[in-house]
Structure formats: structure tokens, C-alpha cells
Design brief:
single chain, 384 residues, alpha/beta, Aspartate Aminotransferase, domain 2, 12 strands, globular, PyrdxlP-dep_Trfase_major, PyrdxlP-dep_Trfase, Aminotransferase class I/II-fold pyridoxal phosphate-dependent enzyme, Kynurenine-oxoglutarate_AT, pyridoxal phosphate binding
């Protein structure tokens, strides 16, 4: 018998797979995993069909089709007045996760340390560990999930190689302010530290707030990767298409890794997105109001329930506090209780921590759903 030693021995099945399977088994309403239950724009679907008919069915350039890279550059120009070179500074990836993974593999070495903020997306820590580096977990301050900058200052050492930022933040919906970015700049400006900014929910931000990208700060321009997602923006999470933006120097080392993790993205999908973005700029400009209506519908629908909440500032997730209902249950147990007894499925927030606070009583719902789905969800939650 051969011996097999896992590189991630503690890694089991993700909570998303567990809760989705539970929803299917119990025929429960699934507001756990982050995907819409409404269709993508018809013109986008037709653009995909047309791209296949037009012959865009073979390998694309490894770094992505140029028309789509040009559209990404236009986004940054319009929003941040930032001029990007589509050829040397933008890479199209098959989803954001592989972009995050490639950036970590490109910069982080064995023995390095990487600061991440908990609760955090579940791919960060494993990607760091696979290089032989150490994730340094810093818990955000509930209930607003702000950063304790004194704690960040104390966590930075000579081994710190990267800080991973996620704004708007999954799973809490918090967003970074200008002062947050300035605080980070002050701490790392004279150090050999790279920023990896996960901005996949960049267009889903509410109440008149503005998304601030890492690249909008000149002090971070030369030391930052920014990763985005077309799936979140265009309601096509299954198309698994994202992007990475960085300076030519950083992008060079990114591509050295990326080329061996994936040869290229899906060609007709890239062409469809490029054509749709060029013809329908109003889609992105209307996203915030579209999803804010969903958030407000969900939040107002459970306003008279026993759940408590702080309105999400971004993403398409809303956390709710159930401490007035079943404080005796931890959040994993509460999610199972809701699924089994009330036929509605959420995600426990504790799974996004290395070590969650003992008194954490938060669960996450996705409001990227049809109006009737959200109304049904509110009806169920009001009876809990």
C-alpha cells in the first residue's frame, strides 16, 4: 500500500456543498450559496449563442480575449480615472478564485506570512498553506466588522509578504472606507508587502456609498493585485469568468503561475461578455439600485420578526442575528434547525473564521433572488 499524505489534512467538504445538499434533500428554500435564481439578461444569453455561431469556439489567448480586457480597462477608467494597458496589466481568468490562487502562488513563498481578515472567503487560507506559508488571521470587530488597525500593526513582521483585502466583504457586507485604505498604506508603505484585493462585489454597493479599489490609491498602485468577477456582475456565476489587474511587473509573475493552472478562459463566454458590456453599459450602472431593492425587500420583510440585523452595505448577502430566538444553538446548529424544521437554508458565519467568537449568533442569507423567493423566505422567517 502506498502512503498518501494530504497537503490539507484538515480540509473537508465545504459548507456550501453541505447546505446545498441539505436543501435538496429536504426540498427547502435555498438562500445559502451566492447565486441568483433569476435569469441572466436575454441580450447576454443571445450574445453567447451568437459568439458560438460566429466561430469563437477554439482556444482564446491565454491572457484573455483583447475585447474583454479592453472593457475591463474602460471600467477602471470610468470609475477610478485609472488608465490601464489591456495587454500588460489585465488577465482574464476562469473565475475569481483561480485569480486569487495564482496571485498568492506568484508572490508568497515558504515561510512567509499573509494577513487575512476573518470572517474570510474560504479559499484564502488553503491557498496560503499550499505554498508553505502561514495565514495570520485577524478578526474584524462585530457588529460593523471594522478593522482593528492596532492589531494589524502588531501582526506585521519581517515575514509579512501579503495582506488580503475583501471589499465589499463576503460574508458580512461591510465595505472599506477611504480611511481604511489610508491606514493600510501608512502601515505598509515602507515595507516589502503586496496587497491582494478581492473586489468581486465591486458593483454591488448601497446607500449612496462608493466602491474604492486598491488601484485607486497611487501609493498602492505598484504593489497591488485586484481580482474581479463577471459572474457576480452579470448574474452568470456558472460562466466562471473573472479578471486580475496589476502593474506589468506584478502581472508578469502572476502569468508565470497562471499559465500552468489554466491555459485560457472559455472563448465564447469572453466574447459574449465583451460585446454585451460594450452595448449595455447601463447594466453595471443599475446594479446597485437593483440589488438594494432586493436587500430592502428582504430586510423590511423580516423587520417584525425576532431576527436582528444591520443592513448590508455591499455584496448580495445579509447577515441576521438569531440570539433572541435560539441562543442555545451555535450557528451551524441553527442552520440545521432552520433547514429541518422550517425548510429554509442559510450559511453559518462561523465557518468563515479560523476561530469564531463563542457568542457569535449570525447566519447569512443570499438576497440575489426573485421577489417571490424573498417574499416566501420572509414569510418563513417571521414564523421562526
Amino acid at each position: 500500500m502506498i502512503e498518501i499524505h494530504s497537503k490539507l489534512p484538515a480540509q473537508g467538504v465545504t459548507i456550501f456543498s453541505i447546505m446545498t445538499a441539505m436543501a435538496q434533500r429536504l426540498n427547502a428554500l435555498n438562500l445559502s450559496q451566492g447565486f441568483p435564481d433569476f435569469p441572466a439578461p436575454l441580450d447576454l444569453l443571445q450574445a453567447l449563442s451568437q459568439a458560438t455561431l460566429d466561430g469563437y469556439n477554439q482556444y482564446a489567448a491565454g491572457d484573455g480575449l483583447h475585447p474583454l480586457r479592453e472593457q475591463v480597462a474602460q471600467l477602471f477608467l470610468n470609475r477610478d480615472q485609472l488608465q490601464l494597458d489591456p495587454i500588460t496589466e489585465i488577465t482574464i481568468t476562469p473565475g475569481a478564485t483561480i485569480g486569487l490562487f495564482s496571485a498568492i502562488q506568484a508572490i508568497v513563498h515558504t515561510g512567509d506570512e499573509v494577513i487575512i481578515f476573518d470572517p474570510s472567503y474560504d479559499s484564502y487560507a488553503p491557498s496560503i498553506q499550499l505554498v508553505g506559508a502561514k495565514p495570520i488571521h485577524i478578526a474584524l470587530n462585530a457588529p460593523d466588522f471594522s478593522v482593528d488597525w492596532n492589531q494589524v500593526k502588531s501582526a506585521i513582521t519581517d515575514k509579512t509578504r501579503m495582506v488580503i483585502v475583501n471589499t465589499p466583504h463576503n460574508p458580512t457586507g461591510a465595505i472599506w472606507s477611504k480611511q481604511d485604505w489610508l491606514n493600510l498604506i501608512e502601515l505598509i508603505q515602507d515595507k516589502n508587502i503586496v496587497v491582494l484585493s478581492d473586489e468581486v462585489y465591486e458593483h454591488l454597493i448601497y446607500d449612496g456609498e462608493k466602491h474604492l479599489s486598491a488601484l485607486s490609491f497611487p501609493e498602492l498602485r505598484e504593489r497591488s493585485f485586484v481580482v474581479g468577477s463577471f459572474g457576480k456582475t452579470f448574474h452568470v456565476t456558472g460562466w466562471k469568468t473573472g479578471y486580475c489587474v496589476a502593474t506589468p511587473e506584478l502581472m508578469k509573475v502572476f502569468r508565470q503561475i497562471y499559465q500552468f493552472t489554466n491555459f485560457c478562459g472559455v472563448t465564447p463566454v469572453q466574447m459574449a461578455l465583451a460585446n454585451y458590456m460594450q452595448q449595455h453599459p447601463e447594466h453595471i450602472s443599475g446594479l446597485s439600485s437593483f440589488y438594494q431593492q432586493n436587500r430592502d425587500l428582504f430586510n423590511s420583510g423580516i423587520a417584525d420578526s425576532k431576527f436582528k440585523l444591520v443592513p448590508s452595505k455591499g455584496t448580495f448577502f445579509q447577515n441576521v442575528d438569531y440570539s433572541n430566538i435560539r441562543p442555545d444553538l451555535n450557528d451551524v446548529e441553527m442552520c440545521k434547525f432552520l433547514a429541518e424544521e422550517h425548510k429554509i437554508v442559510a450559511i453559518p458565519v462561523s465557518v468563515f473564521y479560523k476561530q469564531a467568537p463563542e457568542n457569535l449568533r449570525l447566519i447569512r442569507f443570499c438576497f440575489a433572488k426573485k421577489e417571490e423567493t424573498l417574499v416566501q423566505a420572509c414569510k418563513i422567517l417571521n414564523q421562526v
